[in-house]
Specification:
Blueprint: E1 7-9, E2 12-13, E3 17-19, E4 30-34, E5 36-38, E6 46-49, E7 53-60, E8 63-76, E9 82-93, E10 97-106, E11 119-130, E12 142-152, E13 157-159, H1 165-184, H2 188-195, H3 204-219, H4 221-240
Parallel strand pairs: 5-12
Antiparallel strand pairs: 1-10, 2-10, 3-11, 4-7, 6-8, 7-8, 8-11, 9-10, 9-12, 12-13
Helix pairs in contact: 1-4, 3-4
């Protein structure tokens, strides 16, 4: 299934690349199949897998163009419901396409987490241009996933908690913001003012406001208030256990 959870994927560029409009590889493009490699340690609650993804690389605009489209999968193999996880991912296609960074998924404010055997699908869409490269030299094509940390629905954890510092900090910030929104929900003017705030696109508040405003455009303000109250209640109940 496609993941609809609030997921934060931070990707750091490995090379000086630029995004261009979708392009079609020419017949003489260099080709490779990108394997999906799971580097998670033994006993990991998550498994990364998928079929190899075709990638293409060719000379264009006095540089090198890369194109690859497909998806890979992350499965909960723990036998327990996972509330949140952090992993490291890396994508590369021959010489030009490349990115790496942490993958953070947190369903703390939802009743359902990632159920046992549930599969999350993550898309791959490389359409990048880079400075000229030597096509005669070997390139690197791979998608690597490595689980670092996970938290289960009873609050217990697996892996390196240090890897989850940012996720847990964002969770605390989200809890505080939901509590503020819940307090404002009885005052429509104040709530609408908050929903109209221009938050930093890199902030926790921005993600929450984007989700709430999308719901408001589809279902109206009463649905937004209900969502705020549900998230505040679920998060508050989990926080109250002292296990999260």
């Amino acid at each position: 299934m496609k993941s609809t959870m609030l997921a934060l994927l931070l990707v750091c560029s490995l090379a000086a690349v630029a995004q261009y409009p979708p392009s079609t590889p020419p017949p003489d493009a260099h080709t490779a199949n990108i394997p999906i490699i799971d580097l998670s340690p033994a006993g990991s609650p998550l498994a990364f897998y998928g079929s190899p993804i075709p990638c293409f690389e060719w000379e264009a605009n006095r540089g090198a163009q890369t194109k690859a489209e497909g998806e890979y999968h992350v499965s909960n193999v723990s036998g327990r419901t996972i509330v949140a996880f952090v992993a490291h991912t890396q994508e590369s296609c021959m010489h030009t396409g490349g990115s790496a960074g942490p993958m953070e998924v947190d369903s703390f404010f939802s009743l359902s987490g990632i159920a046992p055997k549930e599969v999350l699908d993550f898309s791959v869409n490389m359409n990048q241009w880079a400075q000229p490269v030597d096509f005669t030299q070997p390139g690197t094509s791979k998608i690597v996933g490595q689980a670092l940390w996970a938290q289960f629905d009873d609050g217990s954890q697996w892996g390196d908690r240090n890897a989850a510092e940012e996720l847990l900090r964002n969770r605390q910030e989200a809890m505080q913001f939901y509590q503020r929104l819940s307090n404002e929900s009885s005052d429509q003017a104040k709530l609408l003012a908050t929903l109209g705030e221009q938050a930093d696109p890199m902030s926790t508040e921005w993600g929450i406001l984007s989700s709430l405003n999308e719901r408001r455009s589809q279902y109206g303000l009463p649905a937004v208030i209900l969502m705020i109250k549900d998230k505040t209640r679920i998060g508050g109940e989990r926080m109250a256990t002292g296990k999260f």
